């Protein structure tokens, strides 16, 4: 769990500071893995693992990461479609309430609950009174990635866009139709589109319909889950322009989830980078792009092909080794250490890293008969023959193993067919301040 | 070197250093609304060893063009309505056996001599002496021989392009069994001159034409079984080598896995391995990295570049992502509504775009410099291509449209050496296209 | 405002309304269904048999006191077709075969409508609960369904009918008890599929109630395979009902095609083919007609054809 007190706070927070529309604290979502005839729970996929951030009124917060990082799950958690395994979300906090929230989370666990109680009663999304929850529902809307599956194919546009108004009994009959027409015009469509089916529109137009539906109740926050990923470049430009215009007109806040760094650089005021369920970096857009502190953020930026020509300096970060680890067994310490080009001995090297190394050499892997763990960092690997154990020990001492991993091994001995190893124990990496409003979870202070 | 343009008589020429040449390609589709002109008069060349980018948005016809090379279009709704795709297959250079020498310019490959005239020059090969095939007109049998062997394709979504019921080894094995069975038999020590029941059975097994009797015999009769196993060994070695080339860790293990057990990046590597298995002359990559994460994409692009440089194959890279195209392509062709509207060296296209659509496309990509809300969005949308009239297809969305634009089709003409544009603004007096159809 | 074009959709008059658009869409669907000649053939057959059932009292004189009992005319036993007054011949108890054919269509209609109606309702309800609620409830319901499905439908229906005693009502009852599982399975699978669509989540984000979401979003989109299956079952039910009647689980002497086939069967060896053949032919035509219609519906409602419209 990340340290709650380490959060980007607005520069010079004062009474004039806006507070937040939505604040997440320690949000986790673990999906159980079931196996066997009785479907017992054998583990958990930690899709989201202790995420905290604030969305300020009127700003665009970009949420970036690759597939499997949990950003889509987080988008659904924020909107209330999924309920978190643990953690809380708080709605519409003014500056005073926000600082009280931060203060409460800075307290140790036992004192926290008492301090949180009043805030939860007033602002907690699941603990607010029903009327307040209804207000949250109206004020937090969502636009989905797949424009085709986000519109009911059997409903007409007027049904789709008018539905929020009907459900909340805001209008009916003629008045409803007129309001829908107004909304359609705001997104660049018109009255002639009222009585058509979704399949009669192009992808970009369907996304406009989705946006019109999201605007119907005049929300304060819209969560956009990769709204333009499926669209062509020129259509994307139209939609992004539209989103910007709407934001300016209505002072909307956006949570913009995407994997496309060019889009997020263009759209977002602040960015949060996620990797394997955790926040690895957060800060203003320009800061992140110019001076990213976390190697993963730098890798994402370097890997993004740009219309401008490549900078040879970032080549080191561009080609990341390996693939995203199994979210059911995330690496210890910093999740990213298995692929990080600048990893240190303190990054959380552990037994599983040896297993991962083994998987690359098939005969050694076949010879492995058992792994017994005393802890995540110490244990024994048993092989079928002495020779394999020796070979692995040799490989671990050679250049084939990253230098930082070698330094992190406190002891490595071969005893017959068994290889005993102990790594330095490190705790989880915490988010730390890197500058005004900029935090990152990396042991390197000046990477 | 500029493209040799079609001469006025419309004869199709293939300049010596090109491996493929598309002229006037038209692919139409029958639909309820009428005849959709998905690809309507596409011209470009693919030079030996280059990476040509085919760029455009949804509906521009780039995928259909790519598939036309392999005749992978469903023919009842699709109609090959005209044009030609001339292809010159290559073989190992006789002088150096594929190593590289002065004769073949270091690549180890030379164009296959024309079977009719054996390299002298004749009408069949248009005087070049190299075997020249019109891929739209060759027989199905010949096409099957070319697919996977001389021309290969990398598809967009590896999750959907790999057979989920076959292991990786089985899928890659198919390519080798189809095209390289003779080599496999040789590697297994079976003499090509050998005759008799065993040899015939082995040839059938290796060529995927085996009958049940062959399989039973191979299972039951030890000598045959041993020899079939050595063929199997040779095959496995080849598969492992192909997988290893794409930097897949632990190829033998992967060979036994099923596609769903691999990650997206690995699957795409498998696809690349499959495409490169028989050392093709031309690779058609249809948005190979669209379905992948950014970091994986970077590595796959590097890999494609490396492999291509090593073998000297040409690549047609189809994509809608301009930034990727900029990074890896030598030349770029921009397509819109079934036509090529601009083609040239990468630098020319990106630094000096001439066609309003290209300019609009480049301006629509969000970059650091663009202020928010001011992305240059091209108004309108792609026109329906049902029975279109002669006119510039971009006319109704173009800011500089004038009378000539809606009167006839613009044709590609040079603005700079190597840089062609089809626009009346650049060529107000470009000759009208001949009445095609 | 950005200019927009809807590709291919012609402009309509201003007075378009939701109702008109939906009717138009229904009309297109109908046209699509009717474009297939075999479907049209099936429809013609169905209308023919429906007509027969509807106008039965006017087509032949109903028997008294119970029109569903075959009339017994001891003076006209075992007459071949073509006999005056008995165009299709008579049975071995003097019943007019034509009478049996016409009134049999009524019994078949009753049978199929009741059974299909009841099973669809029960199956949809159970399948919906399983699909919507999920978890343990889903598990339990599906295990019950599995048990039912492990017994072949015909044998199961046979067993129940045998236990309850031979009568037409009991056949209906046993078929209802057996055939609902299919729909439960289909409905549950469809609901799980439909729930994956974003528009269901969108409705939740709007704040709509689960019940509303079920009726407005999930059910209409999940129902298509059910409609096809129900149509096919209209034919299959009569076939199975006839089988049960044939082996004697129904009352003897009633105007029901299966019973007639059974009773006329003995005469075939003696060359009296008509008493079994004509009712048998009707069973065949009924099943054929609904199968053709069901197939045509399946093709027309196929989502791939939907997107082409």
In short:
Chain A has 447 residues and is α/β, with parallel strands linked by helices. Chain A contains 16 helices and 15 strands.
CATH superfamily of the largest domain in chain B: P-loop containing nucleotide triphosphate hydrolases
> How many structural domains of chain B?
2
What is the average per-residue confidence, as pLDDT of chain B, rounded to a whole number? 82
Order of helices and strands of chain B: EEEHEEEEHEHHHHHHHHEHEHEEHHEE
CATH architecture verdict of the largest domain in chain B: 3-Layer(aba) Sandwich
Portion in strands of chain C: under 5%
Fraction of residues in H or I helices of chain C: over 70%
* CATH homology-level superfamily of chain C: MetI-like
How far apart the termini of chain C lie comes to 29 Å
- Amino- and carboxy-terminal Cα gap of chain B: 31 Å
Task: Show the helix and strand layout.
The complex is a heterotrimer of chains A (447), B (437) and C (309).
Chain A: E1 20-35, E2 40-55, E3 60-64, H1 71-79, E4 86-93, H2 95-106, H3 109-123, H4 130-139, E5 140-143, H5 157-167, H6 173-186, H7 203-215, E6 221-225, H8 233-250, E7 253-258, H9 261-267, E8 270-275, E9 278-284, H10 285-291, H11 295-303, H12 315-318, H13 351-359, H14 362-367, E10 368-373, E11 378-383, H15 386-397, H16 403-408, E12 409-415, E13 418-423, E14 432-435, E15 438-440
Parallel strand pairs in A: 3-7, 3-8, 5-6, 6-7
Antiparallel strand pairs in A: 1-2, 1-4, 8-9, 9-15, 10-11, 11-13, 12-13, 14-15
Chain B: E1 18-31, E2 34-47, E3 51-55, H1 62-69, E4 78-87, E5 90-92, E6 109-111, E7 133-134, H2 140-146, E8 151-154, H3 158-161, H4 168-179, H5 181-187, H6 197-206, H7 212-220, H8 222-245, H9 251-255, H10 264-276, E9 282-286, H11 294-311, E10 314-319, H12 322-328, E11 331-336, E12 339-345, H13 346-351, H14 356-364, E13 413-416, E14 419-421
Parallel strand pairs in B: 3-10, 3-11, 8-9, 9-10
Antiparallel strand pairs in B: 1-2, 1-4, 4-7, 5-6, 11-12, 12-14, 13-14
Helix pairs in contact in B: 4-8, 6-8, 7-8, 8-10, 10-11
Chain C: H1 18-34, H2 37-54, H3 56-59, H4 97-133, H5 135-150, H6 153-164, H7 168-195, H8 198-206, H9 210-222, H10 224-246, H11 257-265, H12 274-301, H13 303-308
């Amino acid at each position: 769990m990340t340290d709650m007190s380490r959060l980007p706070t607005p520069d010079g927070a004062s009474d004039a500071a806006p507070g937040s529309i939505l604040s997440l604290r320690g949000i986790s979502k673990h999906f159980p893995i079931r196996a066997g005839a009785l479907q017992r729970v054998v583990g958990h996929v930690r899709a989201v693992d202790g995420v905290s951030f604030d969305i300020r009124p009127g700003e665009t917060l970009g949420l970036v990461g690759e597939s499997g990082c949990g950003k889509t799950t987080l988008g659904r958690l924020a909107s209330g479609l999924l309920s978190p395994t643990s953690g809380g979300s708080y709605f519409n906090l003014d500056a005073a309430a926000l600082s009280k929230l931060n203060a409460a989370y800075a307290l140790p666990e036992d004192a926290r609950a008492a301090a949180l109680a009043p805030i939860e009663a007033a602002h907690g999304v699941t603990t607010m009174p029903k009327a307040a929850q209804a207000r949250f529902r109206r004020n937090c809307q969502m636009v989905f990635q797949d424009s085709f599956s986000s519109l009911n194919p059997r409903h007409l546009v007027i049904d789709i866009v008018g539905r929020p108004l009907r459900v909340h009994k805001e209008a009916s009959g003629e008045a409803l139709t007129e309001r829908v027409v107004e909304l359609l015009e705001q997104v660049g469509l018109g009255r002639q589109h009222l009585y058509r089916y979704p399949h009669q529109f192009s992808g970009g137009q369907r996304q406009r319909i989705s946006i019109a539906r999201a605007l119907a109740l005049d929300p304060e926050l819209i969560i956009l889950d990769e709204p333009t990923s499926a669209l062509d470049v020129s259509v994307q430009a139209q939609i992004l322009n539209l989103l910007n215009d709407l934001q300016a007109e209505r002072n909307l806040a956006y949570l913009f989830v995407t994997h496309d760094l060019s889009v997020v650089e263009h759209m977002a005021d602040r960015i949060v980078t996620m990797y394997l369920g955790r926040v690895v970096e957060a800060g203003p857009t320009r800061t992140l792009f110019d001076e990213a502190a976390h190697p993963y953020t730098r890798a994402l930026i370097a890997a993004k092909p740009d219309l401008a020509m490549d900078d040879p300096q970032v080549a080191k970060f561009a080609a990341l080794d390996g693939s995203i680890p199994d979210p059911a067994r995330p690496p210890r310490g910093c999740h990213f250490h298995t692929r990080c080009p600048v990893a240190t001995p303190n990054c959380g090297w552990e037994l599983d890293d040896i297993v991962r190394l083994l998987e690359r050499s098939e005969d050694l892997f076949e010879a492995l008969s058992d792994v017994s763990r005393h802890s995540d960092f110490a244990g024994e690997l048993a092989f079928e023959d002495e020779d394999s154990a020796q070979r692995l020990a040799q490989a671990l001492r050679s250049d084939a193993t990253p230098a930082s991993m070698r330094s992190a091994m406190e002891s490595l001995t071969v005893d017959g067919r068994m290889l005993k190893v102990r790594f330095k124990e490190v705790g989880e990496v915490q988010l730390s301040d890197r500058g005004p409003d900029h935090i990152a979870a990396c042991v390197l202070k000046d990477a | 070197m500029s493209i040799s343009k079609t001469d006025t008589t419309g004869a199709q020429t293939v300049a010596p250093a090109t491996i493929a040449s598309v002229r006037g390609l038209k692919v139409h589709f029958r639909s309820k609304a009428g005849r959709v002109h998905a690809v309507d008069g596409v011209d470009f060349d693919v030079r030996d060893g280059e990476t040509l980018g085919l760029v455009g948005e949804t509906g521009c016809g780039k995928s259909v063009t790519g598939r036309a090379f392999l005749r992978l279009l469903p023919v009842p709704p699709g109609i090959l309505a005209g044009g030609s795709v001339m292809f010159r297959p290559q073989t190992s250079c006789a002088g150096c056996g594929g190593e590289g020498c002065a004769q073949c310019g270091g690549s180890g490959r030379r164009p296959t001599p024309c079977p009719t005239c054996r390299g002298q020059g004749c009408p069949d090969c248009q005087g070049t002496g190299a075997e020249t095939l019109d891929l739209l007109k060759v027989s199905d049998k010949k096409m099957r021989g070319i697919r996977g062997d001389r021309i290969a394709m990398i598809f967009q979504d590896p999750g959907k392009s790999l057979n989920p019921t076959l292991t990786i080894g089985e899928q890659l094995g198919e390519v080798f069994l189809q095209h390289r069975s003779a080599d496999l038999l040789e590697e297994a020590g079976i003499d090509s001159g050998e005759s008799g029941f065993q040899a015939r059975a082995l040839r059938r097994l290796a060529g995927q034409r085996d009958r049940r009797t062959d399989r039973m015999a191979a299972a039951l009769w030890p000598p045959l079984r041993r020899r079939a196993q050595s063929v199997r060994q040779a095959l496995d070695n080849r598969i492992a080598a192909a997988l290893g080339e794409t930097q897949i860790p632990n190829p033998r293990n992967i060979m036994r896995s099923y596609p769903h057990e691999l990650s997206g990046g690995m699957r795409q590597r498998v696809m690349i391995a499959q495409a490169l298995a028989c050392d093709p002359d031309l690779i058609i990559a249809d948005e190979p990295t669209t379905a992948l994460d950014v970091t994986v994409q970077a590595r796959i692009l590097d890999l494609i570049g490396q492999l291509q440089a090593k073998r000297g194959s040409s690549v047609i890279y189809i994509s809608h992502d301009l930034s990727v195209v900029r990074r890896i392509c030598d030349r770029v062709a921009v397509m819109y509504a079934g036509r090529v509207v601009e083609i040239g060296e990468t630098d020319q296209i990106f630094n000096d775009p001439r066609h309003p659509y290209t300019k609009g496309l480049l301006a629509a990509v969000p970059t650091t410099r663009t202020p928010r809300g001011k992305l240059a969005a091209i108004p309108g949308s792609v026109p329906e291509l049902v029975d279109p009239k002669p006119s510039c297809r971009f006319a109704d969305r173009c800011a500089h449209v004038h009378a000539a634009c809606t009167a006839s089709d613009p044709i590609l003409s040079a603005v700079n050496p190597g840089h062609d544009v089809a626009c009346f603004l650049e060529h107000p007096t470009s000759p009208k296209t001949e009445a095609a159809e | 405002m950005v200019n927009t074009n809807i590709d291919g959709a012609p402009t309509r008059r201003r007075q378009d309304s939701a109702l008109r658009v939906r009717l138009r869409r229904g009309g297109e669907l109908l046209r699509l269904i009717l474009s297939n000649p075999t479907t049209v053939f099936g429809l013609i057959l169905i209308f023919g048999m429906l007509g027969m059932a509807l106008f039965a009292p006017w087509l032949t004189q109903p028997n008294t006191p119970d029109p569903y009992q075959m009339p017994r005319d001891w003076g006209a036993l075992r007459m071949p077709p073509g006999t005056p007054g008995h165009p299709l011949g008579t049975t071995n108890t003097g019943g007019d075969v034509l009478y049996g054919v016409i009134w049999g269509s009524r019994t078949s209609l009753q049978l199929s409508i009741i059974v299909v109606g009841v099973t669809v309702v029960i199956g949809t309800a159970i399948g919906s609960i399983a699909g919507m609620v999920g978890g343990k409830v889903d598990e339990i319901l599906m295990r019950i369904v599995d048990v039912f499905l492990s017994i072949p439908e015909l044998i199961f229906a046979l067993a129940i009918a045998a236990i309850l005693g031979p009568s037409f009502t009991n056949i209906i009852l046993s078929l209802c008890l057996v055939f609902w599982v299919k729909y439960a399975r289909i409905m549950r699978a469809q609901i799980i599929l439909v729930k994956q669509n974003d528009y269901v989540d969108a409705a939740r984000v709007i704040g709509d109630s689960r019940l509303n979401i079920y009726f407005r979003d999930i059910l209409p989109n999940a129902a298509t395979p059910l409609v096809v299956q129900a149509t096919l079952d209209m034919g299959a039910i009569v076939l199975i009902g006839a089988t049960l009647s044939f082996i004697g689980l129904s009352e003897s002497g009633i105007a029901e095609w299966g019973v007639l086939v059974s009773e006329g069967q003995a005469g075939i060896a003696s060359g009296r083919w008509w008493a079994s053949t004509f009712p048998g032919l009707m069973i065949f035509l009924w099943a054929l007609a609904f199968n053709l219609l069901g197939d045509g519906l399946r093709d027309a409602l196929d989502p791939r054809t939907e997107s082409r419209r």
